[in-house]
Amino acid sequence: MEKRFMDSQIKGVSTGTTILAVTFNGGVIIGSDSRASIGGYYVSSKTINKLIQVHDRIFCCIAGSLADAQAVTKAAKFQISFHSIQMESPPLVKAAASVLKELCYNNKEELQAGFITAGWDRKKGPQVYTVALGGMLLSQPFTIGGSGSTYIYGYADAKYKPDMSKEECLQFATNALALAMGRDNVSGGVAHLVVITEEGVEHIVIPGDKLPKFHDE
Amino acid sequence: RFGQLSSGSDMAPDWTMKEVSTGTTIMAVEYDGGVVIGADSRTTTGAYIANRVTDKLTPIHDRIFCCRSGSAADTQAIADVVTYQLGFHSIELDEAPLVQTAANLFKASCYRYREELMAGIIVAGWDKRRGGQVYTVPVGGMLVRQPVSVGGSGSTYIYGYMDSNYKPNMTKDQCLRLVSGALSLAMERDGSSGGVVRLAAISETGVDRQVILGNQLPKWSTA
Asked: In chain B, which residues touch A (CB < 8 A)?
C-alpha cells in the first residue's frame, strides 16, 4: 500500500510552508508565505518573515523546524560576516550557501530544516542555491521548497522561462505562492517577496486579499 | 528515515513483497457537451513497473467511464461490481443510466468497505439529463461533483497548474490540451506515474479514445 508522506513529523513550531527563489534578467526574487504552525493544527503566527538577510545582497529562506532554522541562520550569519571581513569584500552567494550546507550536513542527525539561498554577487550575478534536508547543495535557475511546493511543481515547470524581466518574474512568483497557499493548509497569510539586484534590495509584502484569485475563488 | 536506497531483506527484491498499485495521475474535466478524461499508464509493485502501458480508463457503461488510482486489485474489483450493478439497473430502467447513479454506486462500495479498500476513483461521463459530469470518490468514500478533478499520487504536483489554467466554459480541444499538459507535468515529477498518456472524450455521439506516446508529449523548459 502506498504511503504518502503528507504529514510533517516535526515537533514543536514548524514552518510548514511555501518558499521559492527565481532568477531573472539582472537579479533574483526570493519569496515565501507567512504562516507558522504547530502540528498543522494551530497557527502559531500569521505573519512571520521567513526571509532572513544574511548579508547585504544575500537572503535565505527556511523550511522545517523553526527552532532549527533560527539556530542555523544565526550561526551562518556570523560566519558569513566574519568571512566577508577577512576577505575584505562582499561574500559570494555560493560561499553563503556553503556555510549553510556545512552546518546542515555536519548536524544532519539532529536538524530538520532545509534552506534556499539566493542573492547577487559581482562574480556570477544572480544565483539560487538549495540546501536540502540531508545537506545536499545544488545550484538551479529557480527552486521551490516547503510543504506547499508539491502543489506547484507542475505550474512552475510549465511557466518558468530563463531570462524573464523583473515584472514577469514578480508575476510568476506571486502566482506560484498564491496557488500553493490556496491548496496547502499549513501555508498562508501574506506573501513576502524580496527583489535582489546589483542596485539593492526591495521588500514587497502582498496581503492575503490582494493575492491573485483563481477560477474557484 | 524515508528516502533510503535499499529496503527490507536482501534475499528477495522488494517488488516480490509489495502490493501492486496504480500509483498514478488521473484527471477529468467537464466541458459543454461532454467530458475529457485522462490517465498515465504506469502500474508498480514497489520499484518495479509491472505494466508500463496500463489502461486506467475503464468503461462502466456506454457513456460512463471511471479513472482508477490506488490499489490495482481493489479498483478492478470495485469497477467490476459497479459495471454489473449499473448494467442491471439500466436494463430494468430500459434507458441509459445517469452518471450520478454510477458515481453513487462507486461511493456505496467505497464507503461501506472503506477500512479494507485503498481506492481513489474519478467517475465521468455524459447523460441526457445533465450533460457532461465529473464526480470524484476519493479514499474514504466521499462523493462530490467538480467541474475539474485530479487524483492519484501525481496529482499533488499539478494542483497549481490546474487552478491557474482551468477556466469555466472551455471547448473540447482546450480541455484535451489542459489534460495532456497537466498529465505530462505530473509524470515528469512523480516516480509512480509515467509511460504514455491515455485520453478519452465522452459526449452524446460516443467515446473518442487517444494515446499520446512519450516522445509526442508536450515539453516544458525545466531547470
From this structure: 2-3, 19, 21, 23, 70-71, 118, 153, 156-164, 166-168, 181-182, 185-186, 188-189, 192, 220-223
Q: Amino acid identity of B150?
A: V
The DSSP secondary-structure symbol of A91 reads P
DSSP A107: T
In the block, cell 538551479 appears at A140
A153–B157 CB contact, under 8 Å: yes
Q: In angstroms, what separates the C-alpha of B118 from chain A's closest C-alpha?
A: 8
CATH number assigned to the domain covering A20-34+53-208? 3.60.20.10
pLDDT in tens, A77-115: 999 999 999 999 999 999 999 999 999 999 988 888 889
Q: Which fold has domain B26-212?
A: Glutamine Phosphoribosylpyrophosphate, subunit 1, domain 1 (3.60.20)
* Contact (CB, 8 A) for A182 and A104: no
DSSP letter string, B91-104:
HHHTSPPPHHHHHH
pTM of the model: 0.85
Q: Are A17 and A33 in contact (CB under 8 A)?
A: yes
ipTM of the complex: 0.80
- Alpha helix stretches (DSSP H) within chain B: 72-93, 99-112, 159-165, 172-189
